[in-house]
Design goal:
The structure holds 2 protein chains of 2 kinds. By secondary structure, chain A is α/β, with parallel strands linked by helices. Helices cover 39% and strands 15% of the residues of chain A. Chain A has helices at residues 6-10, 38-50, 61-81, 95-110, 129-138, 155-162, 184-193, 213-216, 241-246, 281-297, 299-319, 346-354, 368-373, 390-406; strands at residues 19-20, 23-24, 26-27, 89-92, 116-120, 141-145, 168-172, 197-201, 220-224, 235-239, 257-260, 265-267, 323-324, 336-340, 358-359, 361-363, 379-383. In chain A, the strands form 5 sheets. A 7-stranded mixed beta sheet of chain A has the order 4-10-9-8-7-5-6, with helices on both faces. A 4-stranded antiparallel beta sheet of chain A has the order 13-14-17-16, with helices on one face. In chain A, strands 1-2 form a two-stranded antiparallel ribbon. In chain A, a hairpin with a 2-residue loop joins strand 1 and strand 2 (23-24). The longest helix of chain A is centred in the first third of the chain and has 21 residues, at 61-81. Chain B is globular. In chain B, a hairpin with a 2-residue loop joins strand 2 (44-53) and strand 3. Helices cover 44% and strands 17% of the residues of chain B. By secondary structure, chain B is α+β, with helices and mostly antiparallel strands. In chain B, strands 1-2-3 form a 3-stranded antiparallel beta sheet, covered by helices on one side. The interface between A and B is medium-sized, with 21 and 20 residues.
Chain lengths: 416, 147
Amino acid sequence: MARLDAKKLREDFPILKRLVRGKPLAYLDNAATSQKPRSVIKALSDFYENHNANVHRGVHTLSEESTNMAELTRTKLAAFVGAPKPETLIFTRNATESINLVAYAWARKFLKAGDIVLSTEMEHHSNIVPWQLLAAERGIVLKFVPVEPDGTLDLAKVKALLAEGPKLFTFTALSNAIGTVNPVLELIKLGKAAMATVHVDACQWAPHRSMDLKAWGADFVSFSAHKMLGPTGIGVLWGREDLLEKMDPFLGGGDMISRVTLEKSTWNVLPYKFEAGTPNFADQVAFGPALDYLTAVGLDAISEHEHALAEKARAILEGEGMTVLGPSDPKKRSGVVSFNVPGLHPHDVGTAFDLEGVAVRVGHHCCQPLMHQLQCGGTARASFYLYNDETDLEAFARALKRTLEFFKVKPKAGVR
Amino acid sequence: MEGDAELQDLYREVLLDYFRSSTRKGKCDPADLRAHGINPVCGDELEITAELKDGKVNKLRYAGHGCVISQASAAMMAEALEGTDIPKAKALVASFKKLMLENDDVKNLPAELEQLASLEGVRKYPLRVKCATLGWNTVMQGFEATK
C-alpha cells in the first residue's frame, strides 16, 4: 500500500494547478529546484506582514520575534539532519557558497602546495571549480575518482586514490545529473580511515533521504533549502564543531564579530562567525515549515514514492528503446532519470516535452566532466518528488511518444 | 505525429532538411577564418571555418554537435554567406540577428536569407533563440579576428 498520497499532497502546492502551453503542468525538474507548499509561501508573507525586523540587533519586540523565528529554523534543521548542535549549521546563500566557504575558510588555512584534494568525476561544477581555483592559487593537486561507464564509483579505485593521502575528500552523495546513489556511509568511512577531511555534497540527498550527521561522521556537509520545499537564497553548511572553531571567518563585516577596534577584531561565536552581514532571515524563517512538511510526510515514504515513479519512467523509456544513463540496479538509483533520444539533441527533446506541459531539464546539468566521461554532450532529465503522481507519468509518456513520432526517431539507432 | 501544429510551427520541414543535410558540415583546412562558439545554456560547441579570397567568403563550414535549430541555422548561414563579399556577409548577419532578436518582420529579410524565415517560429521560445544565433555570432567573432 502506498505510504504517501500524492494526489492529496498536490493540493498543498498552488503552482501545480497552472497550465503550461495550454496543458496541465507536469513538473519533473525537482533536482533543479522543488516547488513550495502553501505553508512555506504563507510563512514568508506572514513574516513580512507581521514580524519583519533585523535579527540580533534591536531590543525591540519585532527584532526579538524575528531573531527567535529565524533561530527556530536552525533548531528544527538540527533535529532534521541529526546535527549534534544547532550552531554547527551555518546558513549561506546556497550550497555553492557552502562549498566555497570550506574552500576559503578551511582549505586556504590548512592546505599547502602539493597537498591533494580528491573529488570525483561525478560532481556538479560547484564541487569542482572552487577546488580548481584553489589549485591555481595555492598549488594544491586536484585528483578525481573516475566514474564507471554505468555511472557508479568503483570503491577499489576510491581506496587506491585515498592511499595517496589526500587532505580532503569531497564527493556527492547522489548524482544530480544521472541519479546514482553513492554509498555515502562507506565513502565517508574510507575517507576518514585514510585520515582525509571529508566533505559531502548532499544537495540531492537532503530533500529525499533521511540523514543522521552524527552517524555519518563526515567533517563538512552542504545542501540547500530550495530543493527541499524551502525558499531560494538559503544554503546550509554543517561543519564539525572543532573544525569550525579553528577556521577563520569567510566574509568580514557585521554580525560576525564580537569586538571591533580600528586595529583588530575578534570573532563572534558559531554560527555567527560565518554569517557576516544581515542574513537572509525571512527565507530562513520560511524554511522552517518546509522542514515540518517533509517531517510530516516522512523522508522514507518520499524516497520510496519517487523511486517507484522514476523506475516506471525508466521502463517507459527503455520500452521505447531510449538510452537511460546511470546504474541498471534499481537499488543504486534515485528519483532522477536521465536519458537520451537517439539522434536527437536534448534541447529539442526539452522543447517538445514543454509543449506537452512536461518540465524536464536538458543539457549538461552543470556536470560537463561527467557528461564527457559518459560520452554524451548532455541529456534530458526527469526528476520526481513527493507531489508527482501517475498523471505526471502519463504526460511524460505522451510527450515521449509525440517527440518520437514528430522527429521520426528510430529506436536503437544509436545516440549521437 | 500528423498535424502536430505546434511542433511543425517550430520545426518546419525545411529546418529538418537542413539539419539532416551534411553539404556544409565539416571544416575548411587550411582556413583563413576560424572561430569557436559556445552556447552556455547547453554547452554546445560550434566551430566555424572559412576560406576567404579576394575579399569574399569562398567557402564556409560548420562543425560540432547541436540541436536541430542551431545546426540547421548554421547550415543555412553557410549556404547564404558563401560567395558574398565580407561587408555583405556582415550585413547579412546583422539582418538575421535583427529578425531573431528584434522581432523584425520576415518580409524585411534580404533575398539571400529567404530560407531563414523558417526560423521565425523559434522566436516564441526565447531560450532557443540562442541556439539559432550561435553560428552567426561565431562567424562574426571570426570576421572581427581576421580584421
